[in-house]
Design goal:
Keywords: Phosphoprotein
Organism: Algicella marina
Protein name: Response regulator
Order of helices and strands: EHEHEEEHEHEHHH
Number of helices: 7
Oligomer: single chain
Number of strands: 7
Shape: globular
CATH class: Alpha Beta
InterPro entries: Bact_response_regulator (IPR050595), CheY-like_superfamily (IPR011006), Sig_transdc_resp-reg_receiver (IPR001789)
């Protein structure tokens, strides 16, 4: 009994831990757009950008994120293939993963469902509502500003419809 180890279980987001999102996106313009969207919603998230799958793998080994956002078309492969790989790894299988694609196809949605991807978003329609969905899936409790932004948006976009359709049984 003296050598028993006590393990503290903490949720993915706590007021004391930095919230980190790994964004794998090779286009600088899209990186800046994503950065501005998250800054609009909250200043308490660290965005870590990778421009390729190899770079993302290195960053995942250094500091595990609370969420992963993958562009599907990357210079060294497909984001959906990385999502499948991550879903098989004990270290990242529970991390909420999202795909952003220029042209989300039915085949991509099938692979996303197999990989446990939380949502597939159309890149051209990625906005505050979709960024809020990512923050919500990170189980952060201090999103008052984000909630007020969400309430102001009344009309669902194509991307939000896609995310509800492919987000899995939790939706």
């Amino acid at each position: 009994m003296q050598n028993a180890q006590v393990r503290e279980i903490r949720p993915a987001c706590t007021p004391f831990a930095p919230r980190r999102i790994l964004v794998v996106e090779d286009d600088r313009h899209d990186q800046e757009r994503i950065r501005r969207l998250f800054r609009y919603l909250t200043t308490e998230v660290i965005l870590d950008f990778a421009t390729a799958i190899a770079d993302a793998r290195q960053r995942l080994q250094k500091v595990p994120p609370q969420a992963i956002v993958l562009d599907n078309g990357l210079p060294d492969g497909l984001g959906i293939d990385l999502a499948l790989e991550l879903s098989r790894s004990p270290a990242s299988a529970e991390t909420p993963t999202f795909i952003i694609s220029d042209w989300p196809s039915p085949f991509m949605h099938e692979k996303a469902e197999a990989a446990g991807v939380h949502a597939v978003f159309c890149k051209s329609e990625f906005g505050a509502r979709q960024a809020f969905e990512i923050l919500r899936r990170m189980n952060c409790s201090d999103l008052q500003l984000a909630r007020s932004v969400r309430q102001k948006e009344k009309r669902p976009t194509q991307a939000s419809v896609i995310s509800r359709e492919w987000a899995g049984p939790e939706s």
